[in-house]
Amino acid sequence: MIFQKSIFAALIFSLFFFASNSCFSADLKVGIMNVQQIIVECDAGKAAKARFDEKMKNLQSKFKAEEEALKGLQEEIKKKSSAWSEEKKAEKIREFQKSGRELQAKTEDARFEMKNMQDKELEPILKALEKVVDKYGADNGYSAILDAKSVIFFDQKIDITKTMIKKLNGAIAK
Question: Which residues are CB-contacts of 89 (< 8 A; sequence separation ≥ 6)?
Fold first, then answer.
């Protein structure tokens, strides 16, 4: 994918090496964009975040009841364990531990589900962005368009993030 940092690092080095050591420097046109900002601020990214947040809220409310039940059982064990027989105390502790493991497993499953959802939501946005960047770069004579995360310093005049957000919104709306 065009957004991998190692590719960018090699590309940056190559561009600046050739720009400073060849006749190509006059034709070099570089743009910088913040991919993360584009994803967060584009319409599709906002819609994806809303779906993600809704799913997260549903999962959190689902787990809240189980967490409360587990805390209740823990409090019951603290308060009543001295009055219980060793057998009853051991049974309640096993019940608490089992419930804790089950909740932990459900939480891990939910994290995995959320990660998959995030990947599924981002994939079409990134594919569309890649096409938009390719077209914009070719149409406007860019030698390279780089992600701001892989560039230590750049003049804000070459930041095309806002333009890419507009172009991406238009491309996805079609």
Answer: 77, 81
- As beta bridge partners, residue 30 has 144
| pTM of structure | 0.71
* 173 in Cβ contact with 28 (< 8 Å): no
User: Could you tell me which of 58, 77, 69 has the C-alpha nearest to residue 103?
Assistant: 69
Say if CB 164 and CB 38 are below 8 A apart: yes
Task: Give per-residue pLDDT as tens, 2-60.
Answer: 444 544 444 454 545 444 444 445 689 999 999 999 999 999 999 999 999 999 999 99
Residue 131 and residue 125 in contact, taking contact as beta carbons nearer than 8 Å: no
Q: CA 9 from chain center: how many Å? A: 21
Q: Note whether 149 and 3 are within 8 A (CB).
A: no
Give CA 118 to chain center in angstroms.
7
- What's the farthest any 2 CA atoms get from each other in the chain? 88
DSSP-based three-state secondary structure for 153? coil
H-helix segments, the chain: 5-21, 35-41, 43-80, 86-139, 161-173
The neighbouring-strand residues paired with 145 are 31
What pLDDT digit, counting tens, does each position of 103-127 carry?
999 999 999 999 999 999 999 999 9
* Closest to 152 in 3D by CA, of 14, 25, 5: 5
